[in-house]
Amino acid sequence: MTALSLRDVHAGYAGKPVLHGVSLPDVTPGQILALTGPNAAGKSTVLKAIGGFLPVRGTIMLGPDDITRLKPFQRAGKISYMPQALPRGVGLNVFESVLAALRIAGKHGATISGLSLERQAAALIENLDLGDIALSNIDTLSGGQKQMAALAQALVGNPSVLLLDEPTSALDLRHQDEFMRVIRSVAASGTIVVVVLHELALAARMSDRIAVLSKGRIVAEGLPVEVLSRDILADVWGIDAEVTVNARGSLLIDVLGPSRNVIKKEIE
Ligand SMILES: Nc1ncnc2c1ncn2[C@@H]1O[C@H](COP(=O)(O)OP(=O)(O)OP(=O)(O)O)[C@@H](O)[C@H]1O
């Protein structure tokens, strides 16, 4: 099976090591892994390492391929990345941007169906319910509309791995739900999804597994209900929170305030 696995990954920026030996259990096609943790923990850096945007020490495998050794165009044919900061000054409308992404995906050898590129772009836009903004310039869209348009571009070419960095930060509740539905169906078609999320209840709903990153290290990993415990919230986020599971199986997190550790540190 073409699983994604990270073993002892070290990465960072000029003179600044950020990831200190990140290992993750295999993420298999169809699975959604949510990566969470406090600000500056290194979550985006993990996605950039997988996407090949940073030099990496360690192993990142996609099935039999060591993806750190693939040429950029080979990697681009397999991995799609939706960054946290979306590009500005694109100068294209939503339809044109999806069409451009399809053309690039075709050049990288990503699977493109028999339909014309225009028909494929139109189908993707319709599937994401973006018809109303299809002809709007991306630079004029709201933050949430930009995120949905960026998702349409990221889905082009049926990537084996979809990397999403805080993709719902600007979405209202209905669009978050819509986004989750789309990601679930993309995963169900055999894509590996790794998504960075701050909102823990959403991460629990959206993902099959959760990994918690703190100071460049994975400190917990497993099923959402196993991982998101009161102790982890106190140790990693420094908050005291009541964690309950409601009758529908949804995780509820009620933040009560700073954890005792934080209060103790402030007093000392
Ligand atoms: N381009 C860069 N050059 C230098 N340092 C960087 C760069 N990008 C990120 N960093 C540093 O790497 C560390 C981890 O950043 P990263 O963006 O991976 O964290 P994160 O967990 O995604 O944070 P957040 O939740 O705030 O988005 C931070 O200390 C940050 O300052």
From TrEMBL:
InterPro entries found in the cross-reference section: AAA+_ATPase, ABC_transporter-like_ATP-bd, ABC_transporter-like_CS, P-loop_NTPase
Species per Swiss-Prot/TrEMBL record: Neorhizobium huautlense
Any GO molecular function: ATP binding
Protein family: Belongs to the ABC transporter superfamily.
Keyword Nucleotide-binding included in the entry's annotation: yes
SUPFAM superfamilies listed in its UniProt record: P-loop containing nucleoside triphosphate hydrolases
Nucleotide-binding found in the keyword field: yes
Stretches assigned to the ABC transporter domain: 4-240
Keywords: ATP-binding, Nucleotide-binding
Descriptive protein name: Iron complex transport system ATP-binding protein
